[in-house]
Amino acid sequence: MDEFAVSPASRRSVRDWLVDIGLFLFAAAFGIMTAAERIQMPTQDVSPWVFQLDQVIGVLGCAALWLRRRHPVELALALVVLSAFSELVGGAMLVALFTVAVHRAARTTFTVFTLSLLAALVYAVLRQEVGTSRELLFLLGVATQGSAIGWGLFVHHRRRLLLSLRESAARAEAEAQQRAREAIAREIHDVLGHRLSLLSVHAGALEFRPDAPAEDIARAAKVIRQSAHQALQDLREAIGVLRAPVGESLQPSLTDIEELAAESRRAGMRVNLTQEVPGTVSGRSGGTAYRIVQEALTNARKHAPGAQVWVHTTGTPGQWLSIEVRNSAPATSPPAPGEGSGQGLVGLAERVALIGGRLEHGPTDEGGWCLSAWLPWPV
């Protein structure tokens, strides 16, 4: 069974009814015109009973076309056999050949077509008309039957192409949705990971210094409130990416790294920022550079408390943008291994690879950690 075959239980749509009626009328008109031509040829050597039998077969053949969707091959074979001696069933036989070409595989189609050519040859021998050679009669049958098969194959392959395009579009949409989900997950991880680590630092300071001066407690509480508010704002922006049209979502850029470093300094980190970037880096490269620095600072705050952090960006427009974030060995004991899931660096690697960049990271000889990235800088 071909994928375009109609099951017996399926219902005809309005379009199906219109097509079926149109093909039925074509077959009936073909038979009527052929019969009228035969009636106008009194000198034709055809027995009356043969002509009457031919009319009955033509009517039954047209009526049988209503079964063409359920039994296309069986109907075509029956009409091909009848066409070997009946000329009025020719229209119905052409419709059956067309149906097989549309709804069945090419191998089945060409098998039925070959049998129809044999039937045309038999008809040319048995029903030779006055003034018409057998060769011409046979070639006429080949031409009409070949046209029906050719038209059906065109419709068949066009449907297959449309089906393939719909499937490709569905796969592309599903992949785009998956990429969007992954992107928003990375965005939320990067944003909330940074903000929550800031909250953790200030909340930890309040926990371990309950006797701190009231001014310090108020200052830390203010920072916690601001960080929580900013985390909510960042989360709303990240979720808004799902609703925003492509290209309209707001992304951070390389110039926002200064504020990122300032926030980390306010949280007690020692961050040394050096930017040697001529011009502005926007778009995906700028946003990716921002996320790299954000993730690196978050990891340094979590896993290397009290360490000195150096952030260095450099690049040449039209070539590469280089980002390096390096920290010294932690000043105090880092938290127990396993506190982080490690998904941040995995997400960064995926983000960098998507824009054709390269990411490297690992421990340094001094006991610290270094994260380096090279991103394309289109102009």
TrEMBL record:
Keywords: ATP-binding, Kinase, Membrane, Nucleotide-binding, Phosphoprotein, Transferase, Transmembrane, Transmembrane helix, Two-component regulatory system
SUPFAM superfamilies in alphabetical order: ATPase domain of HSP90 chaperone/DNA topoisomerase II/histidine kinase
Enzyme Commission code(s) on record: 2.7.13.3
Top EC category: transferase
Sequence ranges assigned to domain DUF7134 in this UniProt record: 16-159
Histidine kinase/HSP90-like ATPase domain mapped to chain residues: 289-377
GO MF terms, alphabetically ordered: kinase activity
Domain Signal transduction histidine kinase subgroup 3 dimerisation and phosphoacceptor: 181-245
Catalysed reactions listed for this entry: ATP + protein L-histidine = ADP + protein N-phospho-L-histidine
Bilayer-spanning residue ranges: 17-36, 48-68, 75-99, 105-124, 136-154
Protein name, per record: histidine kinase
Organism whose genome encodes this protein: Streptosporangium amethystogenes subsp. fukuiense
